[in-house]
Amino acid sequence: MQKIFSLEGKNAVVVGGAGGIGQAIAQGLAEAGAKVAIASRSVDSLQRAVLEIKEACGLEVKYYTVDAAVESSVEALVVESVKDFGKVDILVNAQGFNKKFNAEDFPMDSFKQMFDVNVIGVMMCCKHFGKHMIQNGYGKMVNLSSVRGRIATKGPGNAGYCGTKGALDMMTRQLASEFGKYNITVNAIGPTITETPMMTDILNSRGPNARKDLAESLPMKRMALPTDCVGPAIFLCSDASGFVTGNIIYPDGGLTAIG
Ligand SMILES: NC(=O)c1ccc[n+]([C@@H]2O[C@H](COP(=O)([O-])OP(=O)(O)OC[C@H]3O[C@@H](n4cnc5c(N)ncnc54)[C@H](OP(=O)(O)O)[C@@H]3O)[C@@H](O)[C@H]2O)c1
């Protein structure tokens, strides 16, 4: 029974795999049996993540530098990873960031940069790995969305981020529609606020009780951890989700149930 969750024989690329959630997912996929590569811009972060994964579970992961907001860089990532692995079966898009400004003051260059990485960067990875997966007749794509693709925040600041994640959700569904006939599934994971480098400054700026208050506001009464995304990711990358496509799983402690 557990075999349907096995990733033995599969090769995975996790873009944003040196980030809080991406690294947890990369380690989880490796522990489930996949050969894994992580990719992002900073070599230092990639090398740190490779070492931490090795220390945590004894498994080697590869790394590649990529700027997912630059199409030629994404194309080079596909060429290199396919050359090294032979084929890539799994793509996880865990890149992304949030810059908060009140809507009436939102600098449009920041707004556009968020779309460049959170939406267009994901599209370019799905497009170019998609071409390769179509040739192979198999593929699993998982995009890191957010509860903010579905519900807005009461406070200000999230017009850009919510916009990108809403766009990402619809793009995920459309890609699922187009790639289904090639045996490629495309799904998303929508976490709530999770303690990662992306959120540290935002949480610190909210005062000493921010984490406790957040935990209290959720039905599960604790804050999300990066590892909360690992089970959903293994499910969506394995044969256990063979007929699941165009879906979004929310590891959100129940936020979207009450939101
Ligand atoms: N943490 C949360 O509360 C939370 C909640 C809901 C959804 N999410 C989503 O989950 C995903 C991961 O978030 P996280 O919290 O793990 O963030 P994180 O720790 O800041 O990691 C983000 C990763 O994305 C990479 N990245 C950023 N821009 C890139 C680019 N242009 N090309 C390639 N890689 C790029 C970063 O590496 P480099 O800077 O070195 O390139 C980093 O490895 C994001 O899509 C985020 O929106 C996070």
UniProtKB/TrEMBL annotation:
The keyword Heme does not apply. Its EC number is 1.1.1.127. Keywords: Oxidoreductase. It comes from the Bacteria. GO terms for molecular function: 2-dehydro-3-deoxy-D-gluconate 5-dehydrogenase activity. InterPro entries: NAD(P)-bd_dom_sf, SDR_fam. It is an enzyme of class 1 (oxidoreductase). Transmembrane segments: none annotated. CDD domains: SDR_c. Belongs to the short-chain dehydrogenases/reductases (SDR) family. This is 2-dehydro-3-deoxy-D-gluconate 5-dehydrogenase. It comes from Sporomusa silvacetica DSM 10669. The gene is kduD_3.
